């Protein structure tokens, strides 16, 4: 028997290509004091040891947010071979299976290589007689790397943009030129002329706008001058993940993930920064947790480590590299040390040896040799 529409839980899909800011947005939503306690989350990360669910979990802890994670994607992403898993997860969440209470709203963060059309289709299929209803598809666009993403993966990029009800043109701070902003606006507007558009920095946007509390259809598409500009925040969250051997995940849409464990390896900050920067033309997304000797401390100390070394969160998208120290009390500081490389399957095929060599060079007194991969 079909469930009444008033009893169904709203579902919002947060789509976007690799590194567009989906996890940052999710953190904002689950940590919101009013909306956070009623949210549940499905995370579809890449790599055997994904990082996104760990970053999101701590942001929701204070609100006791029920969270469901799909993290082991050995067969692909939610829009492909894991579609049935997504449907089962949605039904269980909406009915509150294993939770202290059913959520008021469900957020889905597909991987950066998932087609928004197929994820939305899976949710819509359940809405006919299931416990959920489709609320909206929100797509984040990395404005700084938008044209590169479109050039290298046109089908994925266009699908994610065309199927959006609301588009967040994120990372406005990295696109200071009016001509470049106009070019990104034109690209997105041409693909999705009816979608509302908002410029953001670090995915700062009123949470209520994303969860069906405002009428998206009645809103005009604001230009850059209406961007939500809030102070920059670096997210350093938690989780304890067991160590695991390196693993190259099966390719989906021509993109794959490779996890390289770095247990016991202490890296020099400057050398690591150079190494990551050198991968920009070959690997689109790099993230992970590593032990780093900060700038100003002589020598990385090799595998023997250094008393000055500490855990750092690594985030690299295109030519932007961030290596941020984790707070001493953060549970994420106890997570396994590893880097996750995401890029074209052909590029990453057989690249593990070269990547390991490049990282090892960073640990041997901080060699700043730009070691390419592949």
Q: How would you describe this protein?
A:
The protein is an alpha/beta fold and 374 residues long. The protein contains eleven helices and 14 strands. It has helices spanning 22-31, 52-61, 83-94, 116-127, 146-152, 154-162, 178-191, 207-210, 269-278, 345-348, 352-363, and strands spanning 9-16, 39-44, 68-70, 105-109, 132-142, 166-170, 196-199, 247-248, 255-261, 266-268, 285-293, 310-317, 320-325, 338-344. The strands form two sheets. A seven-stranded parallel beta sheet has the order 3-2-4-1-5-6-7, sandwiched between helices. Strand 12 and strand 13 (320-325) form a beta hairpin. Helix 3 crosses helix 4, helix 5 packs across helix 6 (154-162) and helix 9 (269-278) packs antiparallel against helix 11 (352-363). It is globular, with a radius of gyration of 20 Å. Mean pLDDT is 75; it is low at 67-75, 213-247, 299-305 and 366-374.
Mean pLDDT: 75
Total beta strands: 14
Distance between the termini: 54 Å
Strand order of the largest sheet: 3-2-4-1-5-6-7
The geometry reads as: globular
Number of helices: 11
> SS-based structural class?
alpha/beta
Uncertain ranges: 67-75, 213-247, 299-305, 366-374
User: Roughly what fraction of the amino acids lie in strands?
Assistant: 15-25%
Largest sheet: 7 strands, parallel
Helix content: 25-40%
The H-and-E topology, N to C, reads as EHEHEHEHEHHEHEHEEEHEEEEHH
How much is the radius of gyration in Å?
20 Å
């Amino acid at each position: 028997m079909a469930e009444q529409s008033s009893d169904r839980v709203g579902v919002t899909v947060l789509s976007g290509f690799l590194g567009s800011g989906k996890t940052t947005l999710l953190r904002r939503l689950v940590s919101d004091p009013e909306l956070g306690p009623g949210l549940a989350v499905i995370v579809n990360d890449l790599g055997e040891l994904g990082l996104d669910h760990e970053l999101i979990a701590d942001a929701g802890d204070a609100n006791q947010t029920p969270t469901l994670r799909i993290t082991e994607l050995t067969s692909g992403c939610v829009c492909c071979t894991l579609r049935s898993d997504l449907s089962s997860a949605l039904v269980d969440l909406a009915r509150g299976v294993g939770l202290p209470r059913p959520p008021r709203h469900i957020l889905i963060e597909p991987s950066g290589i998932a087609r928004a059309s197929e994820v939305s289709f899976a949710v819509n299929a359940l809405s006919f007689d299931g416990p959920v209803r489709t609320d909206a598809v929100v797509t984040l666009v990395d404005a700084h790397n938008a044209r590169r993403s479109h050039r290298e993966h046109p089908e994925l990029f266009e699908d994610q943009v065309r199927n959006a009800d609301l588009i967040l043109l994120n990372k406005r701070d990295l696109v200071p030129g009016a001509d470049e902003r106009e070019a990104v606006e034109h690209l997105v507007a041409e693909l999705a002329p009816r979608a509302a558009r908002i410029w953001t920095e670090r995915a700062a946007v009123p949470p209520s706008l994303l969860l069906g509390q405002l009428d998206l259809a009645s809103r005009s598409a604001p230009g850059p001058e209406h961007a939500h500009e809030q102070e920059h925040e670096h997210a350093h969250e938690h989780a304890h993940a067991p160590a695991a051997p390196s693993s190259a995940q099966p390719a989906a849409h021509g993109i794959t993930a490779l996890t390289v464990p770095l247990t016991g390896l202490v890296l020099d900050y400057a050398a690591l920064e150079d190494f990551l920067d050198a991968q920009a033309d070959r690997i689109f997304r790099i993230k992970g947790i590593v032990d780093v000797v900060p700038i100003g401390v002589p020598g990385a100390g090799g595998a023997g480590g250094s008393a000055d070394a500490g855990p750092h969160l690594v985030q690299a998208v295109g030519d932007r590299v961030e290596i941020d120290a984790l707070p001493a009390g953060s549970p994420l500081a106890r997570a396994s040390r590893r880097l996750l490389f995401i890029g074209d399957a052909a590029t990453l095929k057989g690249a593990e040896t070269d990547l390991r060599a490049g990282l090892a060079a960073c640990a041997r007194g901080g060699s700043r040799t730009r070691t390419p991969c592949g």
